[in-house]
Design goal:
CATH class of the largest domain: Alpha Beta
Number of strands: 11
CATH architecture of the largest domain: 3-Layer(aba) Sandwich
Largest sheet: 9 strands, mixed
Length: 307
């Protein structure tokens, strides 16, 4: 994010609600490079905090391709983006989870259009611990016992781990309930059971990793694109205790050997058209997929780039 900001990104930090997608606020300098403000087309893009870094990088790169197009990016979580799409308030919702059947039906009732899903990359939902934590791997059932309601694991010593400095209590770092990452973890790790109360629930993916980096007794989950080598450690994950654990990586996310791999998604209302279609087509091109890889995620193989 700091590197992106240093390169002069010009993005909106909040979505424009209650209006057509074309009526966005133009930022200072919008329409630069010889394009009049009146000629600028705005695409409103809101949703997943997991995807906000790659979404901002896409928007910056696309500005060079189509200077007359301004892509406004804001986060808030997959649920927030999907809710805005259901209202017809944005052009594109970013999501790190699939839309639920009831959300699709609500969008159809509200707008008369059925949401269209685009897979634009893949991610490994990494399990992070502090760099000094001696633990190197963990299983899905152990994670469920740490994070899930009714789970009994509350101390590192119960996992056979001794934390430098003597902190034994496990500090659980989670996401807010509007997050697609929260929903994905709940479904694929907790088997749709509720989370145990008392976790530290963060608003963004970056904040999860930052808190784990500064807390020796912490464990949290976030996209592997937010890894900060030297400050946190990504654990290998096994489907079941005693089975081989797999490291989160590009290869293991793509072939789904990593147990908590997931797709990165865009949603539109019906088939996109005009500048929105052109933008999504570009995201699925070699140039757009290069941005996915540079952002720490897994680009789509050429034969999976359906438009």
């Amino acid at each position: 994010m700091n590197q992106l900001a240093a390169r002069g990104i010009r993005f909106a930090v909040t979505a424009i609600w209650g209006g057509a997608a074309a009526t966005c606020l133009l930022l200072s300098g919008c329409g630069g490079g010889g394009t009049d403000e009146a000629d600028t087309v705005c695409i409103q893009n809101k949703g997943s905090d997991t995807m906000v870094n790659v979404a901002q990088a896409w928007a910056e790169e696309y500005r060079a391709v189509a200077p007359e197009v301004d892509v406004e990016i804001s986060g808030g979580g997959s649920g927030v983006g999907i809710a805005a799409l259901i209202k017809g308030a944005i052009d594109i919702a970013n999501a790190s989870r699939n839309m639920k059947p009831e959300e699709i039906e609500q969008a159809k009732r509200n707008t008369g259009k059925e949401p269209r899903e685009f897979i634009v990359g893949h991610d490994a939902l990494a399990i992070y611990v502090h760099r000094d934590n001696p633990l190197n791997e963990i299983s899905i059932d152990q994670l469920a016992d740490i994070f899930g309601e009714g789970g009994k694991t509350t101390k590192w010593s119960e996992l056979g781990v001794s934390i430098p400095g003597g902190q034994d209590e496990i500090v659980r770092v989670s996401r807010q309930s509007s997050s697609g990452t929260y929903e994905f973890f709940r479904e694929h790790v907790l088997n749709k059971e509720d989370f145990k109360l008392g976790s530290r629930d963060m608003n963004g993916s970056k904040e999860v990793v930052e808190l784990v980096a500064g807390t020796p007794g912490a464990i949290g989950y976030s996209g592997m694109g937010y890894n900060v080598p030297g400050k946190v450690k990504m654990l290998k994950v096994a489907t079941r205790k005693g089975e081989p654990a797999v490291e989160p990586s590009v290869a293991s996310a793509l072939d789904k050997r990593y147990p908590v791999a997931r797709s990165l998604l865009l949603y539109t209302l019906g088939e996109p058209s005009g500048e929105t279609k052109a933008y999504i087509d570009w995201i699925l091109s070699d140039a757009g997929q290069k941005v996915v890889e540079e952002s720490g995620y897994v680009p789509l193989p050429a034969d999976m780039r359906h438009k």
